[in-house]
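Batch job 17 of 40 flagged for manual review because the log was empty.
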Amino acid sequence: MFSNNHFILLGICGAAIVLASLLAKKMNWNLKWVLLVCCFITILCETTKILNNLSIDDYGARFSVWALPFHLCSMQIFALWFCYLTKNDRRREIMFCLMVPTIIIGAAMALLLPTIGTDLTNPEVWTSFIFHSMLMFFAVYLLLTKRVKITTRVYFRNLAFLAAILIVVGFWVNGMFGTNFLYVMHPPMTGLPLLNLDNGYYIYLISYLCLAVLLFTICHFVFIISSLIRSNLHRSNK
């Protein structure tokens, strides 16, 4: 974490996110085109991950269940394809309101805490950073084009959806496959403050859930409070 390679990757990804966001704003990129490009990137990244996690022996090929798209950011793949294919604007708007805060939290954490490592010779490292950078850009794009309106109602709806995902994937899927999706079973890496097993699993789980709710709440209420401030300023200027 925060090695020279990590700083190189963060610098490249940060520059790419800023450049793409500026171009999208200046050139008024079309939503459908942006979604198509993002979906294409998901195909490339998932294909690389599948090939990298494919074991071939005398009995055939085996794919590691740990590489299934059930982490918070990986599940954005389904959301992106849904938003691209659906013709229902209301459903797309609901999905955008869920995607933006979860991307901001999930992708930022993935870029800062790369569980896959920072080996520049590993193609999966590059695809992981590219994928999470793409997600960050998409969240910024939605905010720049004012396609997302976060309200208190949206917050509670998103919180309920996230709780359902946590129960189904975090406990049921992990329990069935012995995996660690959403990092419910154990920390994403060793040596983390607060998120560790020094005081046992249940303390880790409570700390994990409290931190998740705190970050989720802060991310939503930043938008809610800023929207209220803008509304009050707009009314006072009339």
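Reviewer: the log was empty due to a logging misconfiguration, but the result itself is present. The beta strands are 54-57, 60-63. Unflagging and moving on to job 18.
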